[in-house]
Specification:
mainly alpha
Length: 70
Amino acid sequence: MSRGGVLLGALAGVAVGALIGILFAPDKGSATRKKIIDKGEDYVDNLKEKINGILHDGIKRGEKVRETAA
């Protein structure tokens, strides 16, 4: 399994666990929805950072291959 797949699986597990924990917490519905939205935004931001890092690494490797080929 690739490193990205493992990372994505771990992030999905954490997200599901957090969502279940929030849903079973004794809060008002509006407070629970806000918590879910806030957590979701945090996970999306983290995922974007990780994807950008992977893309950056791929670009750097591509440049090295191009330089070696030239």
